[in-house]
Structure formats: structure tokens, C-alpha cells
Amino acid sequence: MDLKGKIALVTGASRGIGAEIAKAFGEEGAFVIVNYLQNEEKAETVVDHIKNQGGESIALQADVTDEKSVQDLVAKVVDSFGAIDVVVNNALPSYTFNPKTRKAAWAMKWEDYQKQIEGSIGGAFHVCKAVMPYMKEQNSGRIINLLTNLIDLPLVPYHDYTTAKAGLLGYSRNLAADLGPFGITVNCVAPGLTYPTDSSMETKEDVREEIARLTPMGKVASPEDITGSVLFFASDWASFVTGQCIRVDGGLVMK
Amino acid sequence: MNKEQQETQAYFIPDTIQLTSFTTREFESKQGKLILKSPTLSGKDIQFITDTIKANQKNYLDRLQTTEVIDIVDAAVQKWLDPDYHLRKFAEKWLPVITGYDAEMIRLELKRFLRTFRKQELLRFLVEEFDDPAVLDDFRPRKKGGLSKAYGPNLILHFFSGNVPGLPVWNLVMGLLIKSGQLGKTSSSEPLMPVLFAKSLEEVNPELAKTLAVLPWKGGEEQLEQPAIKAAEAVVAYGSSDSVENIRKRVPAHKRFLSYGHKISFAMVGQEALTVDRYRASIHRVAEDVSVYDQQGCVSPQIIYVEQGGSVSPREFAQLLAKEMDHYNHKKPRGPLLENEALAIQSFRSQYEFQMESSVYGHPADTSWTVVYHSEPGFEPSPLNRAVHVFSCTHLEQVYPKLTAFCQYLQTVGVAVRPNRLFKLSEDLGKAGVSRVCSVGKMAQAPAGWHHDGEFNLLNLIRWTDIETSAERHAEHYDEDSE
Amino acid sequence: MRQQTKQMIEQLISFIIYRRSTDKDFQDLALSLFSYQFEYNLPYKKYCQKRRKTPLTVQHWQEIPALPIQAFKELPLTCESTTEPESVFLTSGTTNVEKRGQNIHPTLAVWDVSMMTAFKQFVLPDQQTATIYVLSPAEDLNQQSSLSRYLTNAVKHFGTEDSRFFFKEEGLEMAALTAALKEKESKREPVLLMGASSAYVHFIDYCMERDLTFHLPEGSRIFDTGGFKGQSRELTREEMYESFARVFDVDPNNFINMYGMTELSSQIYEVTAQSPRFEKVNPDWVKTLVLDPDTLRPVKAGEIGVLAHYDLANWNSCMAVLTEDIGYETENGFVLLGRVEGSEARGCSIAVDELMKANGK
Fold first, then answer.
1. Residue A185's closest CA among A152, A227, A144, A220?
2. Could you report the per-residue pLDDT of C131-176, keeping only the tens digit for each?
3. Domain ranges of chain A
4. Superfamily of domain covering A7-248
């Protein structure tokens, strides 16, 4: 898998799955841009980790829900590194995944949905829009969007979050259709419950055990489990794969 | 697999003539070795061959009706349209080895090309140039009185082109339609196809084949070309301005001389062809035009003018064209290049890579395709072999001033515009010197009856004899039975 | 001048002077110069980034992207930005006068050391000085010519008192040169003739018209350089050497041909006495790669391709330069086959040159 010298941007990469993805790219020799919103210190930890492994990386702050902020980020990346080969849309709006305190359907407000759509689809949209001209110019590019397997199997129905992620799948497929002729692929990775991450801290033992019991592979995902599929979509092995979604949940959802 | 070795003649002469001394040229490929056998010729040989052809023309071909000639050509072409025909299989096997073109591309294009010589096309071709094609057989009445008959040259000397396989077939067919004996000199880059087609004609009608000779020799060989030109009534030459000029000055003024010099072609894509539902098809067509026969034909575009205002910008057009050319290259890879050809493309890329107003899109690992985008319209030739310019323009009409210096070189323009622009655009392009306007995607497929380089094909070769009304009337005087 | 630059220059000069020539030394210095140029030469950085070649991904000097000579025409290539460089050498610009390639030298320190070290090695290995007669302009007549700098340096550092330049503002003083050569001939004193190949052609023509020949004393040498570039009729190298032997009566073992480019800061030599005919040999701080013109990857040893020179002395613009010359590798160097002519179209599509002629370019 030759990602050597490739320029990869991972949004929301200061922690959790994003941080693991960034490290994985670093190990493969890619030049990794660790994007973060607030936690500069944690982002730098990721950068240091990559550098200590002999890779190259920098941390850049940007709010993906802010169009201008994203455009500046991407312009800076291309200006500094001359290209942008891979984008992983991993950032998500803050959300509490607590099966016990989640809102029921009848408690949902339209604003709840709006906020998630704004964060999930809007964030990816701004990033994709910003990288498109550069990827077109290169005649190549890889866009990878992070979803959730809850869109197929709402074991815990987080209505607003999951609806937005399902929308992101639709967005990704349409994007794949228009960008294919330019040599740009758009694919999705849909993890199952991934533990431990900040987002999943409030998902307690009992729920995790229950999910593990239902999962053919017998456990919930850990952040490192997710990275392989992301690297695959970024690699030459996936050069003719676009508009696809891989569930990485130990076989909980089979599709 | 056993490597096959095949030997074949790289020449065709009337079967009554024996030549004694030969040289060979060898071509090697994965599938085996081809040995091309060519005669070592003297001026005397040429004289003898042309004398024989002229005698056979007089005694046989000249006496045929044009419709009979058409039937013979059609029968030969029908053979070629059969995928199992032995000469077609031979051509499909060895032409890629000789020319370096992709085998699949040759298979497809040769078939397309030969289809344009079936009976119905040949009839159409004749009607295109003669109101009454029977003038080639007999004196035919004229509307204003009197009668006329058309005579083709008793011998045409061809200097064939070698860039696109099969093109000389067009010249041979043209000569046959006007019942001329023919001697063709092949180009060293494609010496095979005219010989094979002559063989097919021989299979159909051995007598007619005796009016044909196809011979290879090195261009400019005075001791062969001098007697050949002397024997011919008309000379048809392909080549660069220099090589055509070199032949022209040796042809006496009283002989017919037709030349097809080097030309340049381009395409124009209007914004109406770049709507969101159409742009992919438009780009696909342009990529075909650029890629076919590795851009070696004079009909191949070297420049694409792209109008702003469509759903894809001219820059995006260039990016997408690059990808389409990449796909084409996967299907039908470009042939191998000589060092200077490859370096010309590298140099072409470097020339524009460092200029602010242009962008270069090229295969990252080799020279198999290259698109250079320019933000302002201009007129620059490309180094060919699938390298093309894309010029952005606010309106296609912006292009005309760029063309003025190149009037004599302009040939085909592939267009993608709406009906109410087509006439105006063609009118202006015609004024600029362009001789052919066709659809993008069809640039490489000129119909048999086209005005090649803006001229008649048959009419320029024939001469006329008129019987005037006075002679008719006067003749009546001597009718003994006249009242 | 930044400190890093000063250090780089020092390192380069000591590499050249001490001629430490292991491949490892070259490799180390090439990679560190690449990092330096990648950092400070912005257009070159972009060029490398587009090819995903950075100091992090390049492991071997052969992977350093060679910059096409066209870049020297289009862009100011410089690591050390200075308003008053010591010299800016320009290419002769025969094809397009408006677009001449330039090589900017903030200081000529490295250039001069490179020139003199190699000159000593290839031209005067066995003696300290020589009487030098020069057929081409000196530096004061043509400040933008790297060749003029070269010739002036040669006379200044290696010429005896009686060395002379015969090219004046009015052109080559043929009669004076003839007289001077005749004098050397009668005194039996050897002389080193130096000049551009085209200058020799003019002088040879002059001699032939007058039935002039010389019998230059033993130890005389003939040094020529460069192509003809439309400045004189063109001769092949064989014809050139034959003329030298005929007109000057100098043994072919005393012919030296120098291959230089404005875009480089070092020269490459063909010394008939030292290596097989037509083989060009690099000084230790220059390496030449032969690349496949289609892929720009190194060809198999001995195959023909386009030349890329890696010249450590070219520290300010770009060490790795992709030429349009073709040649092939030999045991000690390479053989130059010449500059590639414009592409001759196989087909009936008009060739570039023909069309440019039509446009009066």
C-alpha cells in the first residue's frame, strides 16, 4: 500500500477514531494534517506520535462547519504541501451518546436535527467543496466520509445524529457520481460502537456487552479497528472503488 | 508458443512481369517475425512496368463501364468486411507491428474506413462530382447542347502517405473510378495495405489488377522517379510542404498535379455542449478525436477551443479530457515513440508547466497523453501522439483572429454547437480557410466523397472532350440519307 | 546571505577542492543540498511537490527531480534572494530572443572553484600555466556569458603573460591570431587555443580560403566548446577534429572539448588523451543520469536517453537539471549525441517547425 508522500487531511483528528486514523496514515508514510477544533494540545500529541514514528505531520485548527475557516485550512495545506491527496471527514458536532438519557422520537425538536445536519453533512460539505478544485487539478483524489452503522441498525436510536449520518451517505454517493470523471473517489466507512473514545464514554458496560454478544466477532470495535478500511479507500488497491460504504462493526450489520 | 515466421511481398505488379532482385525488411513482435520482400528496381523496370500498365489500361480497364468497375471494387471491399477474410486477418496481425499502432484500434478503424467504399458510397461519390457519371463511359448530352465525355489519365503516379493505415486505398479507388492505370509509391512507415488491397482486386478480377502497380522505394530516388513521372499523365503526392514541393518542381507544367500537404485541424465546443447533462458525452467525443491513430492524421485535432458559460468550465473540460484520454489509453494504448517524439512531448509539457497562464495535465508516469490548458485563446500546434491544447474562450467567435496566419494549413474543424450557430460559424471558418466542418467525435471519419482539402477529387484528375452543336449539325450535312 | 547558505557554500567548496569522491559523500551532500533547495527555491519546491518528491520521501540522489531547462526561461530560480547578484548568466537565446534562460549567481565563489578545479584536472593536469590564445569574447565584452567568465578565469589563473584574447568588439581578429600563431610556430613554443566551436569554424574557413596551415609546436592543445547554434556552418565532431588536425597539425590526443550549460555551474570534459573518443567525463561533484524520454526514469546502462545533470556546484538555482540533449552512458562518463530536433511528425499533420515558420516565429 503506497501512501508514501501522499498528503492526507483528517478532520477532528485530535482524539478518538480521528486520531487513530491520522496515526495510521503517518505509519504508512503519508504526510498527515491533523485538523482540530479546540484541543490543540491533544492534536499536538498526535503530531508528536507520528513524528516519533518517523513520519511527518502538522496540526491545523479549523471549524469544519465554518465555510471560510475550511477554505483557509485547505488553501494553507495546498500552499504548504503542494497537493491534497486524501481527505477524511471524521469531525462531528459534539454529541452525547448515552443510551439512558437519549431523547425519544416524541421529544425531538426540529432544531436537534438541524444541528446535526449542519454539523455532519455541512462539515463534510464545506471540506469537500474546498478540496474539489485542487483534486480536479491533480486529476486524482480520495474523499472518505465517516458514518455509523446505526444508519442500518438503530440499536440505540439517536434520531438526529443517525439521520444526519444517513444523509451524509446520500451526499457521498451523489458526490461520487459527479467526481468520478475527474478521477476522484468518494467512499464511506461506517463503524459500529467504538470504545474507548470520548463520544462513547457514556455508553456503559451493559450496552457494550450486549452489542458484543450480538456481534459475530464477539467484541465492540476499538479505534484501531477502524483505520484499515480508511487506509484501503485511500490506497491504490481501491482506485476503482467509489460510492461505497464499508461497515466496520465485526459483522453486526451485514449488507 | 512457437514463433511464427511469415514472408510477404511488399509490392504488387502485373503478374506478367518478373522481377529478379530483392531485398528484405524484418519486423519482430511477440507473435513472430514478418519478412517484407521488396524488389531492387532500376529505371528500366519502372519504364517496363508503366508501359505494361498503360497497355492493360487501354486494352481492358478503359473499355469497362464505370458501373462494372464499381462492382469489382465493391466485391473486393465486401471481402474485407468479412472478419475471416485471409488478407484482413493478415493486415490486422501485422499492421500493428509495422506501424506501432494499437491492434484493436487498427481493427476498428480499418473496418470503419473500408465501409466507406461499398457500392452505394462509390455511387454517391461519383454523383458528388459528376451530374451524370455516365460521362466517364460515353459522350453524354449537355443541357445547353452538344455532348461531353470525361477521360481519366491513362496512368496516375501516386506518392502515398504512410501515417494512417489504409489511406492509399482511397487513392487507388479514386483512380479506378476514372479508369486510370496506377503506379503507387508506398511510404516506408506503411508499405503493406495498398499491396493487400491490390491483391484483393486481383482475386476478384485478375485483368483489372494488371493495371496496378504498388512499389516501395526511397522518396527522391531520381533514377526511378524521373521515368515514373515521365510515364504518368497525372501525379498525386502526399507529404510535408517540402517533400510535396520537391515533387512538384519535377512534374512538367502540362501534367496534372494534385498535392495533399500537411494540415492542422482543431475542435470547437460551444457552451451548449457543456450543459450538465451533455458535457460527458462531448468530452468523450473529443477524446476519441484526439486519440485515434495517435493523432497522426491531418484530420486529428491539435487544439480544442472551449467556450465559457457551460456547467463545466474550460479548465474543468481540460481536466476531464485528460481523464477521458487516460481511459482511451487503457483501452487502446498509444504506440511506442522514438526518442525525439517522446522528448518533444516532455519539452511541450515543460514549456507550459512553468507559465502562469497555462496548466499541464499529463500521465504521471509517461508521455501517453497530455492536455495543456490555456486561459486565453491562441493557436499553437502540438507535438502529436496524443498531446493537445485546450484554449478557453469567452465566445467561440473570439478564435477567428488567431487563425489568420495559418489559412493555408487549416483543414478539419470538429464542432459541437446548436443549429442556429452552425451556419454562421461554418461561414466564418470557411472564410478563414477551413475546408471541412464536422461533428466532434467524427473528425477521423471523413466520408468517401468529401472535398479533400477543399477540392474536387475526380474532377481535378480528368480532362474533357466536347462535341459542340455545330459539329453535330454539320455532320447532318453528310448524312447521305438526309432529306 | 543567510547563515545556512554560507555553511552550504563552505561545504561545497571543500567537497570540490579536496575531491573526496566516494559515492556516499556525493549522496549525503546531494540530499542536504536538495533539502536546502526544496526549502528556499519556491518554484522548484512546487515542482517537486507536484511529483510527491520531498526531502522526506527522497532517499537517493537519483530520485531528486531534475528541473527542465525551460524553467530557467520562465522563472527566477534562486534560493538566496539578493538584489545584486555577482552575476546573472544568460543562455544565448537563439530560438527565442525574448525568452532566454538565466542562472542567477549571488556569488561566483563556488562557480569559480568548480571551474578551476576541473580545468586543472582535465585541461592542464601536467603543468601550472600555458600560453592561452582565446578565440571567443572575454568577460568584459560579454558579462552575461558563462563562457566568457570561464575563458577569462582560465587566462587569469592559468595563462602566462603572453596569453591573449583575439576577440574584440569588431569580432575575431583573424590576421592577428594568424600572426601570433606563426610566431609561436617559429619560436617552437606550445600554445593552448581556447574558444567556442563556432569561432573555430570561422577561423578554419578563413585559413582554408588563404591556404593557411600551421604546425603548432609539440605540447600545443586545442580546446573547444559548445555547439554551433546557427552561428556558423555545422560540423560533426569527427569533421571538427579532422579540421583541427589539418589546419593546426596538432595531435588528436591534445584535443579537449568542454560541455557546459548556462543552467549549470560546472563543466564536463572530453579529453582524447584521457579516455576513449567522444566520451565525456564529469568532475567528482557532477553526476549525469541517462533517462528514458518517455518515463524520465533511468535507462539500462548503455541505452540512449535524455541527459539529466546533477551538479552540486549549482547551489542557488537547482542542482538537478533536465536537458534536451540525448546520449548514452559509458564506462567513465557518457557520450553526447546532440540536441534533439523538433519532433518530426510521422503523419500528414503539420510539424511544429513548419507552422512556426508560417507564423514568422
1. A144
2. 999 999 999 888 899 999 999 999 999 999 999 999 998 889 999 9
3. 7-248
4. NAD(P)-binding Rossmann-like Domain (3.40.50.720)
